[in-house]
Amino acid sequence: AQKVTQAQTEISVVEKEDVTLDCVYETRDTTYYLFWYKQPPSGELVFLIRRNSFDEQNEISGRYSWNFQKSTSSFNFTITASQVVDSAVYFCALSEAVGNAGNMLTFGGGTRLMVKP
Amino acid sequence: SQTIHQWPATLVQPVGSPLSLECTVEGTSNPNLYWYRQAAGRGLQLLFYSVGIGQISSEVPQNLSASRPQDRQFILSSKKLLLSDSGFYLCAWSVFLREELFFGSGTQLSVL
User: Which of B44, B59, B92 sits opposite A91 (nearest CB)?
Assistant: First the structure.
């Protein structure tokens, strides 16, 4: 069965600090997708990124970057020069690309990031 | 572009009362539709998903039910709410199963 662990339940940083949100996953499949979502105080989950298990290239999008390492089953998310608007709950998720229909996205418990001015 | 609408935004209901939450998607055909629940301070739990009209799969046994009367409409219902049904309910859609989901703005349900 697939599982996603976000060990950091809450992180507090001061504006302009860099912060890394950890995500560790478990799956028996070789083909899977990994995701990150942002949930601001308004509640709506915003899709940030999807990574295919065959693509281990790191990705950078502005102040956001993602480090995918299959060897350690991790998909960590770094925010550079954090801003107050980055304050939110961030969810990592996993889905197996094949298999029975029950393998929908499995979400981690989320990490609440608080960026203080 | 595709949009997803979910209402109401907040709802306060007494124990034992019925429930109906509605979700509609615009700008796409034959989407996969989902209902998730998020209990306070916790992660997301998949309740139901649907791959087509009238096709509902339940992930968790409970006193909730879902229906899909039209291609882009997904309804979450209950005949009698329990205190434990309180939470934040999110509707979502996707193009393909197991790929990225796009979420509605959510409904905060308080059962008193």
Answer: B44
Predicted local confidence at residue A98, as pLDDT: 62
Record: contact A104-B98, CB cut-off 8 A = yes
Give the helix/strand (H/E) hosting A55: none
- Of B43, B88, B102, which is closest to A107 when you measure between CB atoms? B43
Among A73, A53, A68, smallest CA distance to A4 is for: A73
Q: CA A82 to CA A17: how far, in whole Å?
A: 6
Q: CA separation (Å) from A83 to A114, A115, B20, B83?
A: 9, 6, 38, 38
Task: Tell me the C-alpha distance between B21 and A9, whole Å.
Answer: 30
- How long a stretch of residues is chain B? 112
Residue type, A69: Q
- How many CB pairs below 8 Å do chains A and B form together? 56
Cα within 13 Å of Cα(A101), Cβ side: 12
Residue B62 exposure: Cα atoms within 13 Å on the Cβ side: 21
Instruction: Write the residue in A102, A105, A108 that is nearest to B101 by C-beta.
Output: A105
pLDDT tens-place string over residues A5-24: 999 999 999 999 999 999 99
